[in-house]
Write a structure and sequence with these properties.
The protein has about 750 residues and is α+β, with helices and mostly antiparallel strands. The chain folds into 3 domains: about 220 residues, Aldehyde Oxidoreductase, domain 4; about 130 residues, Aldehyde Oxidoreductase, domain 4; about 200 residues, Aldehyde oxidase/xanthine dehydrogenase, molybdopterin binding domain (Aldehyde Oxidoreductase, domain 4, 2-Layer Sandwich), CATH 3.30.365.10. The protein is about 25% helix and about 20% strand. The chain contains 19 helices and 28 strands. The strands form 8 sheets. Strands 13-14-11-21-18-19-20 form a 7-stranded mixed β-sheet, with helices on both faces. It has a 5-stranded mixed β-sheet with strand order 16-24-23-22-17, with helices on both faces. α13 links the parallel β23 and β24. The N and C termini lie far apart (about 60 Å).
């Protein structure tokens, strides 16, 4: 992190000590009054308030000429900081290597929403680009005054402003403002989080002038992570720190009624923290904390097991009372069109609860000292954790600092925010800094889950086979039973076990595509959670929240309709898709994959091993993606090898093609894992997916042999998100490839060997 303790500033004393004038690289000295008036207008030694309307909240030029970019979002593994650094360097006309992006520290950045909704570049980068452009404008105006040269007669290269007709007239950013702070107000839209936008007077560069944006600059943080040079959140230590562990009930919903603290008296330094349903232990050494959690004798309340048998999950969803219903898209008269249809095609699809299953369980460290709170967390949303800690500890927000420190991964609302709140409760209770780490069974068994759901689709065809009506409805657990972040105690395990009032949210979604059916209706229904308080099956955001399941169903169904009219899957889609960029990604994927135009399924295969190809496409917040999967299937074992993927991707302007390709590859691999393996298991008492055996994920031997990416660049358009869109069509592409290979349609994820084998038999 770049620090500002040793700031330099233009003061009367420093200038006068230099002889009454500041000498820059020009022929004549500039008067003291000129220097001070320009400096006072644009820069100051004291740091302005950390508010969204201050340029200093985003950009600083350090004494050595390097640039700090303060980013209120964070990178969860894509190398986002590289792209943000490119955007800042481009607008400031400084070398990329001179920009340091400081992410997700509430003491240095404003709330730009954290890692959320693939908005890192789309919204967060947009703001950083505007701030950097404004910083350049201000610096060039400062230079114009100092060099006595009009702005339009100045050039900027590598952070040095010079006269176009006399390069000896020059001054660097560092000389003008290095170590001081911009004193410039921005036009803030008064919003926090993802929508925050605060431009200045400057306009960003024309894309045709870009030299850094668009370059495949590689990230430099991989080796430090791999070789343990860079700290993860698990590595953070502070003096006087103790270790914590949480204790969860064997029957979800039960609470401690009796805790025998004497049962751990032989463990050095072990202490119990018990308040209502909240139960944890701390000890001076981590192993002692683990032992204390295992040995503590607890009597739990008698609670009726809250969950149905897993085999009845989808029947439960079908029969459950609808809590909220919403029609998001509708045109034409769907009901009348179905009444007069020559043929109606219907299907239903099922998607399970899924865990984030991060590489390791969450860890957080909370220190409460001298009336201030400092938390180190791998959260996606440090500013919201700051709010949650303040509410949980009943302290002013400005007394709480959250420092984003890389954790084991996230991609949604995993267990990181819960861990931070639990650690805070422990730290307050014992009066010492607490490093809390969950155990593996808690990381998988107790993280917020991606919701289970069912999806019904139907299409009405006329006598010619044209689709005249289409209806799609999802029904499932809410994507926001607990919110997308830990900003409120009601959405955290700490708050819920301590008895705060609950406020479960409702939300789902509909397919994002551009099929122009004359009569079309798409909506969703949410149902109540299986357990309303401190549930291991509470549902929240998992990467591309509800996108994979919705499009597994919708794009599988489009393929089913294509097969029913004996049409090639791509040719059928292109009959109805009207948006040119959507058409372009589908055609680009087909060309790259050498798509063989024919209906599915194949008719030319016999034997135990068969292969097939399938396509799926979707939009997401302005981004368009088409995915073609090529799979091999062993009929005898039911094992699927998703061998090859071709992805055409259009996210507007591309900032860093190297990072973008790797991001897409990661999406594909995780998408394959969620399609072939991932399913949270549970019995009436508890979640039984607690480790890598009971919650298997894709292993390295099963990863695709090829992922070929076609990037469609639109420099003339704003960049849109890439962190999630390409995971969205993966499940449907695989399902459609299975159908192409076997003629069998599988409508329930995951496509585990047993399920595939049963379907094929």
């Amino acid at each position: 992190m770049t620090k500002f303790e040793k700031t330099s500033s233009f003061t009367r004393r420093s200038v006068l000590l230099g002889g009454g004038a500041l000498v820059v690289s020009i022929g004549a000295a500039i008067s003291l009054e000129t220097v001070l008036s320009i400096s006072a207008a644009y820069a100051q030694g004291a740091k302005p308030p950390l508010t969204p309307d201050q340029l200093s909240s985003y950009i600083a030029v350090n004494a050595d000429g390097s640039v700090s970019a303060f980013f209120g979002k964070m990178d969860m593994g894509h190398g986002l900081h590289v792209a943000i650094g490119q955007m800042v360097a481009e607008e400031l006309d400084v070398p990329f290597r001179n920009v340091k992006v400081i992410m997700g520290d509430t003491a240095t950045s404003v709330n730009q929403g954290g890692a959320s909704g693939s908005t890192g570049i789309q919204l967060g980068g947009k703001q950083m680009r505007m701030a950097a452009a404004e910083a350049r404008r201000v610096l060039v105006e400062m230079a114009a005054g100092l060099l006595s040269t009009p702005v339009d007669k100045l050039n900027v290269n590598d952070g040095v402003v010079s006269a176009a007709d006399d390069t000896s007239k020059r001054i660097s950013y560092a000389q003008m403002i290095g170590g001081k702070y911009f004193n410039v107000q921005l036009d803030w839209n008064k919003q926090y989080g993802n929508p925050l936008y605060a431009p200045g007077k400057a306009q960003p560069k024309n894309p045709k002038d870009h030299k850094i944006v668009g370059q495949p600059i590689k990230r430099e943080d991989v080796a430090p992570k791999v070789f343990a040079i860079e700290n993860f959140v698990t590595d953070i230590k502070v003096p006087g720190m103790v270790h914590g562990r949480m204790i969860r009930p064997a029957v979800a919903g039960s609470e401690p009624v009796k805790v025998d603290e004497a049962s751990i008296k032989d463990i050095p330094g072990a202490k119990v923290v018990w308040d209502k349903g909240f139960l944890g232990v701390v000890a001076d050494k981590e192993w002692n904390a683990i032992q204390a959690a295992e040995k503590l004798k607890v009597e739990w309340s008698q609670t009726q097991p809250p969950f149905p048998e897993q085999a009845t999950l989808y029947d439960h969803i079908r029969k459950a009372t609808v809590r909220k219903r919403e029609i998001e898209k509708q045109n034409g008269n769907v009901d009348d069109a179905f009444k007069t249809a020559a043929k109606v095609i219907e299907a239903e699809y099922e998607w399970p609860f899924q865990s984030h299953a991060s590489m390791g369980p969450a860890c957080a460290l909370v220190e409460i000292k001298d009336g201030n709170v400092t938390c180190w967390s791998g959260t996606q949303k440090s500013h919201f954790v700051q709010n949650g800690l303040a509410a949980t500890l009943q302290m002013p927000v400005d007394k709480v600092r959250v420092i984003f420190t890389a954790g084991p991964g996230s991609y949604g609302r995993n267990d990181a925010d819960d861990c931070a709140m639990d650690a805070a409760v422990l730290a307050k209770a014992v009066g010492k800094p607490v490093r809390l780490q969950y155990m593996r069974d808690q990381g998988t068994g107790w993280d917020p889950k991606g919701p289970a759901s069912i999806h019904k689709a139907r299409a009405a065809l006329d006598a010619s086979g044209k689709v005249v009506a289409y209806e799609f409805t999802s029904k499932g657990f809410s994507r926001v039973d607990v919110d997308t972040n830990g900003g409120k105690p009601q959405d955290t395990l700490a708050g819920q076990t301590l008895g705060v009032a609950l406020k479960s949210g409702d939300g789902f979604g509909v397919p994002a595509e551009s099929y122009a059916f004359d009569n079309k209706r798409m909506g969703w229904e949410t149902i109540p959670p299986l357990l309303d308080r401190a549930s291991p099956l509470r549902s929240a955001h998992l990467r591309d929240p509800v996108g994979p399941q919705i499009h597994f169903a919708s794009e599988s169904f489009i393929d089913e309709v294509a097969a029913a009219v004996n049409a090639d899957p791509i040719e059928f889609r292109l009959r109805y898709i009207k948006e040119p960029r959507d058409v372009a990604v589908i055609k680009a994927a087909a060309e790259k994959a050498n798509w063989d135009t024919r209906p599915s399924p194949r008719k030319d295969q016999t034997g135990a091993k068969v292969s097939g190809r399938g396509i799926a496409y979707s939009q997401r917040n302005g981004t368009r993606v088409a995915v073609i999967a090529e799979v091999d299937i062993d009929r005898a074992s039911g094992k699927i090898f998703a061998r090859k993927f071709t992805v055409a991707h259009d996210c507007g302007q591309i900032i860093n093609p190297d990072g973008l390709v790797k991001c897409i590859e990661g999406n594909i691999v995780q998408g394959v894992s969620r399609t072939l393996w991932e399913e949270v298991t549970f019995d009436p008492k508890a979640v039984t997916s607690v480790d890598w055996v009971s919650y298997p994920i894709l292993d390295i031997t099963e990863t695709p042999a090829e992922v070929n990416v076609v990037l469609i660049n639109h420099p003339e358009l704003p960049p849109t998100g890439a962190g999630e869109p390409s995971i969205r069509p993966v499940a449907a592409a695989i399902a459609n490839a299975i159908f192409d290979a076997t003629g069998v349609r599988i409508r329930r994820v995951p496509f585990s060997p047993d399920r595939v084998k049963a379907a094929l038999s």
